[in-house]
Amino acid sequence: MQVYAGCALPEEYLYHLDFDVWVRLEADGSARLGMTDIAQTLCGRLVSISFQKRPGDRVRRGRTLVVIESAKWVGPFRSPLSGEVLEINQDAFRADIAVVNRDPYGAGWLMRLDPVALAQERDDLVDGLAAFPVVRERIEREQIRCMRCVE
Predict the structure, then answer these.
(1) What is the CA radius of gyration of the chain?
(2) 2: closest CA among 107, 129, 148?
(3) Please, which residues have CB within 8 angstroms of residue 17's CB and are 6 or more apart in sequence?
(4) Domains in the chain, start-ordered, CATH in brackets?
(5) Contact 110/33 with Cβ under 8 angstroms?
(6) What DSSP letter does each residue of the chain carry, written as one string?
(7) Per mean pLDDT, which range of 36-45, 99-108, 141-150 is the poorest?
(8) How far is CA 68 from CA 60, 111, 137, in A?
(9) What is the predicted pLDDT for the residue at 1?
(10) Is 29 in contact with 43 (CB distance < 8 Å)?
(11) Residue closest to 23 by CA, chosen among 67, 74, 70, 78
(12) 31, 23 Cβ separation under 8 angstroms
């Protein structure tokens, strides 16, 4: 995992840098999605999350999957892939609304999809090694310092 200014970026994940979304391709062919460390930092502590899609729903790349609200920001979590929703992480957020602020690449995942056009849409995703220089430049330009919520 690469870290700069406190912002972590797992190398083995894929990233849609415009959406601040990570993608982890699972062994079963599904794709787990979540907010990057930069995204959760810029949002600040979450106060509300509204899942717009449910298991069985079809989604298109670029569409809103989740509406996220924090004390500083309200906005969409957009899908980096087209596919069918397999699972949402609603229970984790009900138990701890700040789960993404504590663990954005683990327990704070948002949704799992069955991608239907991965071969075509993969070009919009970059791996962690390729993403890191771009992310580092953004961190410097915007003077971002990633922080995690603590109990």
Answers:
(1) 14
(2) 129
(3) 126, 131, 134, 135
(4) 2-142 (2.40.50.100)
(5) yes
(6) -EEETTEEE-TTSEEETTTTEEEEE-TTS-EEEEE-HHHHHHH-SEEEEEE---TT-EE-TTSEEEEEEESS-EEEEE-SS-EEEEEE-HHHHHH-TTHHHH-TTTTT--EEEEESSHHHHGGG-EEHHHHHHHHHHHHHHHT--------
(7) 141-150
(8) 19, 13, 25
(9) 84
(10) no
(11) 78
(12) yes
Q: How far is 2 from 70, CA to CA, in rounded Å?
A: 26
List pLDDT tens digits, range 4-35.
888 889 999 999 999 999 999 999 999 999 99
Tokens of 58: 């079809």
pLDDT digit string, tens, across residues 93-132: 999 999 999 999 999 999 999 999 999 999 999 999 999 9
Whether residue 151 is predicted with pLDDT greater than 70 in this model: the reply is no
Q: Which of 77, 34, 31 is nearest to 52 (CA)?
A: 77
